[in-house]
Write a structure and sequence with these properties.
The protein is an all-alpha fold and 369 residues long. Among the domains are: 118 residues, Cytochrome Bc1 Complex, Chain D, domain 2, CATH 1.10.760; 86 residues, Cytochrome Bc1 Complex, Chain D, domain 2, CATH 1.10.760.10. Helix content is 46%, strand content 0%. It is built from 16 helices and no strands. It is elongated. The structure holds heme C (HEC) (3 copies). The site of one heme C (HEC) has 27 residues, from helix 3, helix 9, helix 10 and helix 11.
């Protein structure tokens, strides 16, 4: 018999019908309780590994730095430990019912490259419950998580808690919101290499605007989105009041690098030929607009990272963000380094305006530091 077009068409139609009837009949189980067959399990995981390996090809790994660890550890506690557990805590019993069960990361991390971990954390794993990063724009945050995961297999409970700050153990207790914030933001945890900003002494207006921008997705950050996801607008406002009322403390004198001469020049006078305005015409003046953030005393790494986000058009922000985006467009990498060093080394209490210096804390619920 010659196989003609008609036979082929019938075959395709038949296959399609069977492919439709079988799932329609309901014989394919979708309940997680029964688990997969060993073979299915093996096949799915093999397919997942292959997919990750292929999509990680060509991803370039940036330098993974020490300063990335604390913020990523704090986020791990709030956003990952609930499924994977942590060195300080076994995973909750409820996730044992997930299919697949979230793996113990200590065991699996060594089997992945940095680029593959980036791919998994950025995009998640379909059909498994492993979520993608909450915002698509912030590859820098995902790389920070990769830096942390690389360290993860070597962490014990104590070293994990040290990195994750007060956030460890407390992030799931609604009454302890403030401790969660301080787990990442406590000034004594922040040195110049930190990617987390200080909040103490920032104006109430700027803090409130920033929290609203995170909540509404106008300032993309997966880390802050998760940190404030359960807060109401009133709670956010109360937190803005609390942190603005913390006394501003000076930074420890940081050795000024030879970059700061240039940084100070840009800060005070700008570079008009290159259409860079004086930063201090908006920032850190005694009578500054409270919607403009204080930069003095912020970690240099944080300031530089935010400026790069502005340059890459990924920063977002509050209602006045467009002003800053325009300024940043003309900064090159060496300008960014120089101004970040300069403002970081500047004493924040020296030029705080009326909106910045406030009497002792009448705080949110606990005492300010
Ligand atoms: C809702 C539960 C859940 C959350 C939250 C979660 N994961 Fe997962 N994760 C999973 C599951 C389930 C898998 C297994 C996927 C698979 O085997 O295909 C997984 C897999 C992984 C893997 C790959 C491990 C392997 O070899 O299978 C990594 C790495 C990972 N998660 C890291 C993270 C990080 C980092 C976070 C936080 C940003 C996170 N996960 C948040 C459930 C979760
Ligand atoms: C897991 C660590 C972590 C936790 C927990 C956390 N933050 Fe943040 N916070 C960050 C990071 C990182 C940034 C910078 C994000 C970015 O790139 O925009 C930030 C930025 C901010 C900003 C913007 C400051 C500025 O100078 O622009 C405010 C305001 C803020 N956080 C308030 C809070 C409050 C209030 C809480 C508690 C509800 C909190 N954060 C919890 C890590 C954290
Ligand atoms: C015309 C006013 C204006 C000028 C000039 C200006 N800025 Fe800004 N800047 C802003 C505003 C407004 C924001 C807050 C954006 C937001 O998050 O809503 C900001 C935010 C920033 C931030 C982020 C701070 C944080 O806590 O996240 C940095 C860093 C910064 N500016 C650096 C500079 C530098 C460096 C210069 C000089 C080269 C400069 N700015 C000049 C208005 C200005």
């Amino acid at each position: 018999m010659v196989i003609g077009r008609k036979h082929l068409a019938a075959l395709v139609l038949g296959a399609a019908l069977v492919g439709w009837v079988i799932p329609w009949s309901g014989v394919i189980g979708i309940s997680a309780s029964t688990g997969h067959w060993k073979l299915t399990d093996w096949f799915l995981h093999w397919a997942m590994r292959s997919s990750v390996r292929t999509s990680a090809i060509g991803i370039e790994v940036p330098p993974l730095e020490e300063g990335m660890l604390p913020m990523a550890a704090g986020h791990f506690e709030g956003g990952c430990a609930l499924c994977h557990g942590s060195p300080a805590m076994p995973p909750p019993a409820s996730v044992r019912g997930m299919l697949p069960v979230p793996p113990d990361l200590k065991e699996v991390i060594p089997t992945w490259t940095d680029a593959e971990l980036f791919q998994i954390v950025q995009h998640g794993v379909r059909f498994t419950g492993m979520p993608s990063w909450p915002v698509a724009e912030r590859e820098d945050e995902v790389w920070a998580m990769v830096a942390f995961l690389r360290r993860y297999p070597d962490l014990d409970g104590a070293s994990y808690r040290r990195l994750a700050g007060h956030a460890a153990h407390q992030s799931r207790d609604q009454g302890r919101v403030l401790e969660t914030c301080n787990g990442c933001h406590a000034p004594d945890r922040l040195d110049r290499d930190s990617l987390v900003p200080r909040l103490d002494g920032q104006s109430q207006t700027y803090l409130r605007d920033s929290l609203a921008a995170y909540a509404e997705g106008m300032r993309p950050s997966g880390i802050m989105a998760v940190a404030i996801q359960s807060l109401t607008e009133q709670e956010r406002a109360a937190l803005a009041v609390h942190f603005s009322e913390r006394t501003v403390r000076g930074v420890n004198a940081v050795a000024l690098s030879n970059q700061t001469g240039r940084g100070e020049h840009i800060a005070r006078f700008g570079d008009l030929d290159r259409r860079i305005p004086a930063c201090m015409s908006c920032h850190d003046r005694t009578n500054g607009n409270p919607a403009y953030p204080r930069l003095a005393g912020q970690p240099a790494a944080y300031l530089a990272a935010q400026l790069r986000l502005f340059v890459d058009e990924k920063r977002g922000g509050g209602p006045h963000r467009a002003l800053m985006a325009k300024v940043a467009a003309n900064l090159d990498d060496s300008d960014i380094k120089a101004v970040a060093e300069y403002f970081s080394a500047r004493d924040p209490s020296a030029d705080a305006g009326p909106d910045h210096i406030v009497p002792a804390s009448v705080g949110f619920s606990s005492r300010g530091r």
